[in-house]
Amino acid sequence: MNLAVFISGTGTNLKALIEAQKDKFFTSQIKAIVSNKEAKGLEFARLNHIAYLVSKDDDEILEFLKDYKIDLIVLAGYLPRISKKLINTYKIINIHPSLLPKYGGKGFYGRHVHEAVFENKEKTSGVTIHYVNENLDDGAIILQKKVDISGCKSVDDLADAILKIEHLSLKEVIKKLEVEN
Ligand code: GAR
User: Fold this and answer.
1) CB distance 104 to ligand 1 below 6 Å
2) Mean pLDDT of 58-71
3) Range of the domain at 85
4) Quick check: 58 and 51 in contact, CB under 8 A?
5) Contact at 8 Å (CB) between 97 and 114?
6) How far is 52 from 124, CA to CA, in rounded Å?
7) DSSP summary character for residue 51
8) Is residue 104 classed as helix, strand or coil in its secondary structure?
9) Per the structure, how many domains does the chain have?
10) Which of 96, 114, 130, 167 is catalytic?
11) Interval 142-152: pLDDT, tens
């Protein structure tokens, strides 16, 4: 599959996918990267000579992606809402750092998720990878992994524990979808 990866932040999930591609963990190729801002994670695009676009404009994003025959868009820490136009044009998946539907929806993204989970003294959290539909964090779940967080002493501990599992889960899902594609 030809992949486009969308990011907004540090891009460690993007990095994990680039490494998986280099290791031939899957056969898919990351053809394009999109960010809504000058995100830190764009350094991985530059280092690996992958085409990228910084834009908040969906028409511009659609135009950019047209050249790369994209089969799947992977939202890897991409924060803006995805428009109908994009949803109707591409198959899109998203990675979320909790066991959806818990800690999903408005306001639950990135560190905010972990803060709420920590505050509630949860013993278990996890990772969800799901298809994207018009409703936030709501599409069909492809993979969910539970993580024991009973030993986490801080929000940072918790975020690190979840992120490690995210990196493993995302490449697994790409491999799984290759078979189905
Ligand atoms: C990840 O934890 C991802 O699950 C989360 O943003 C982080 C991005 O990290 N996504 C969401 O919260 C989406 N609702 P990264 O930029 O290092 O990959």
Assistant:
1) no
2) 97
3) 2-180
4) no
5) yes
6) 36
7) E
8) coil
9) 1
10) 96
11) 999 999 999 99
